[in-house]
Amino acid sequence: MYPHHREREQPIFSTRAHVFQIDPATKRNWIPASKHAVSVSFFFDSNRNVYRIISVGGTKAIINCIVTPSMTFTKTSQKFGQWADSRANTVYGLGFATEQQLQQFSEKFKDVKDAARLAREKSQDKELANTALNIAAPQDLSDDLQSPPVMCVNGPEDKLYRSQSADITLSSEKERIKKMLSEGSICELNLETEFFTLQDSNSKLVAALHEANANVAQWKKQLVAYQEETERLREQVADLEAHGGHGPSDLLKDELTQSLEELEALLKAKDEEIHILQSKKTDYHEIERDRDQAIHRLREVEMRNSELERRIQNTEQNLSISLEDRDRIDTELQRAIEILDIKIFDLNDLRQSLVKLLDK
Fold this sequence. Notes:
Layout: E1 10-22, E2 30-32, E3 38-45, E4 50-57, E5 60-66, E6 74-75, E7 80-85, E8 90-95, H1 99-141, H2 159-245, H3 248-280, H4 284-359
Antiparallel strand pairs: 1-2, 1-3, 1-8, 3-4, 4-5, 6-7, 7-8
Helix pairs in contact: 2-4, 3-4
């Protein structure tokens, strides 16, 4: 029988760390497997009773390690630990941000290793039980394979006994043939049942594959939408920074300074005119009116200055809000990319299992 649809592995623990691998040439130096901290997770496969450590960087699995009872996680410093994987012929190293994260990972590694040991012991006990049943089965069948009783042919008086023995042997042979035919029909029914079960499993696998492809397409659309939104926000921030980079406050200050200089020059000119008019004893009311107009213009400039300062503050607040929104969108986009990487890896694993299943 082929295995039924394999359930997807369930995550049981996840943390973030910088991943390293030992240099295969020197066996001493560490080679970074990721440019930044990535997710490192423990997964459990309930069908195979297998625990795995998986870490994905981009579209590549940088850790795909099956936990065995012989593995040991060693803390070499306050924030760094390592373990050896004999299957991959390498040594993995993890650098954590805090000592607490390292302690949590070490405890979870020990728990998973103990669980893997118990699962292996249960599997060995089951294999021993199956072996014992296979050994006992031929002994039970030996009774059906015994040879028919030997007939005595010592004389004419034994003809009746030989005929009765032949009839008994013939009837027992017929019974054995009937039993074989009935067992053959049962086997045929079992094969048909298995065939329909395989068809049902195959249809379920195809449906799961289509669903996974649909999910991947949806995730790609969401990723494109996130990227477009991020690009739009970046453009807005760039526009705001462009306006701010040219120094809106500097431009306004220059404009205000120029206006004040013009007003000061105007006031100075008016004062000179006043002095001239006073010296010439011209109409005093006209001078007063000109001064009032100059004062009015000065107040308008001050109001305009206040309005420009308020606009500068609003612009700075909008710029700060836009920067916060961009950081939030970048964080959400990074999280969505990591989730998509894990989903893509699971999909590739499922596809490989399907290929193996179809090859069988």
